[in-house]
Design goal:
By secondary structure, the protein is of the alpha/beta class. It has eleven helices and 18 strands. It starts with a strand and ends in a 7-residue tail after the last strand.
Length: 403
């Protein structure tokens, strides 16, 4: 993914060479280029601002340097026939920048940022730019900063960390604050009992030491609700709707969905296997694997507030057209336990053509809650699957009553 940033303080963006963002740049996952707006001025003082028409305090950034700077960015496109960048202009008068916006921007192949200063950028620049690219004015919050650079640092980090391969533990991307509309649950580490500096003994909640993953998931969800109610009650109304498949936005996956599907897939399977390099003994799918799979499967995705939260893929069995294959049924970890998985399975079955007589799926043998869900839905084991530690299950389709 490519990022271009135009600023009068290019050194302000130096922190993007640090931590995971810097590593992503060095690994070639991110191409980030910073441009000095003053390089596009034509006077010896390198002037980028002037007084506002109509009077008033402060200075306004002139249109000429901005048009030339953005023209320069457009002229350096890696693919002349490809799409133009999405131009993001941080400003307190913009739409709120939130996690759903970060996920939306992470789907774009190219972002450009215009860092305003003083009282802002001449309005004509927005009009000029909108004829060449999509323009988004986004706000970090209801406060005013001296310039857009701080916002660009925050927005870039929020977007880049969503790209496949940037964050090592993909599961962390779907179990954190603002995912699913709720704040993150409390987290603890060793030791299980800690005596603080005041002599008070503080223990980790017993449920986290139980090894009962269903109880842990339920406790964490309860904690997310309580914490959100205490700190951000405004989020509860939106989050409460994510309990039924019908509340989600459904679509058939396209190649642009592949990176998100791959991340959600890894997050779901990380709960089930101890070896994160393998999916039940088979190689884990990359974003390219998912894209390739779209040619052989119909993959259906479901979103909440723009975030991909569930997916399943279906097809006729290439060797037996009467069999309907269901695969990669996934619900993000923080929304599990609400019945969405069962609804997703029923939805996958409903997609089968009328002449299908049997449903088929494959699951991990040593994951009891999955086996219980499928058996409760009427599936029965028919033998070991191709992958180590997996089982094939089938279910006869109920006959349609004749009229």
């Amino acid at each position: 993914m490519r990022f271009d940033v135009v600023s009068i303080f290019p050194d302000y963006l130096a922190p993007l060479d640090l931590s995971l963002i810097g590593k992503a740049r060095r690994d070639g996952l991110v191409d980030l280029r910073v441009h000095d707006l003053r390089d596009f001025t034509h006077d010896r003082h390198r002037t980028v601002d002037d007084t506002p028409y109509g009077g008033g305090a402060g200075m306004v950034m002139k249109p000429q340097p901005w048009s030339e700077a953005l023209d320069h960015v457009l002229g350096t496109a890696d693919d002349a026939s490809g799409p133009a960048p999405v131009l993001v202009v941080p400003g307190p008068g913009g739409q709120p920048f939130d996690q759903a916006t970060a996920r939306e921007l992470a789907q774009a192949p190219w972002l450009a940022f215009a860092c305003g200063r003083y009282e802002g950028i001449d309005e004509r620049v927005y009009e000029w730019a909108a004829q060449r690219m999509e323009v988004r004015v986004l706000s970090l919050g209801d406060y005013v900063l001296n310039g857009g650079e701080v916002a660009v640092l925050a927005m870039t980090e929020a977007v880049v960390r969503l790209l496949p391969g940037v964050v090592g533990n993909a599961e962390s991307l779907v179990e954190e604050s603002h995912e699913g509309g709720l704040l993150e649950y409390p987290i603890y580490t060793k030791p299980s009992v800690w005596e603080d500096g005041d002599g008070v003994v503080r223990a980790v909640p017993d449920v986290l030491l139980s090894g009962d993953h269903a109880r842990i998931a339920a406790w964490r969800h309860e904690q997310r609700l309580e914490r959100t109610a205490a700190r951000r009650p405004d989020l509860l109304a939106a989050a409460a709707t994510t309990g039924a498949l019908a509340d989600l936005d459904a679509s058939v996956a396209t190649p642009s969905d592949a990176p998100e599907i791959a991340v959600v897939q890894r997050a779901c399977w990380a709960q089930m296997v101890a070896v994160p390099q393998h999916w039940w003994g088979a190689p884990a799918e990359s974003a390219q694997d998912v894209r390739d799979g779209l040619a052989h499967w119909d993959t259906h995705v479901f979103r909440s507030e723009g975030r991909l939260v569930a997916s399943v893929r279906v097809r006729r069995d290439p060797a037996d057209p009467a069999v309907w294959q269901i695969g990669r049924l996934m619900v993000v970890p923080d929304l599990q336990g609400r019945g969405i998985g069962r609804q997703l399975l029923a939805h996958a079955e409903s997609l089968a053509p009328a002449d299908v007589t049997t449903y088929w799926l494959n699951t991990a043998t040593e994951v009891p809650h999955l086996m219980r869900m499928y058996k409760k839905a009427g599936y029965r084991p028919v033998g070991p699957g191709e992958g180590p530690g997996t089982t094939d299950l089938t279910k006869r389709r109920a006959a349609t009553p004749s009229r």
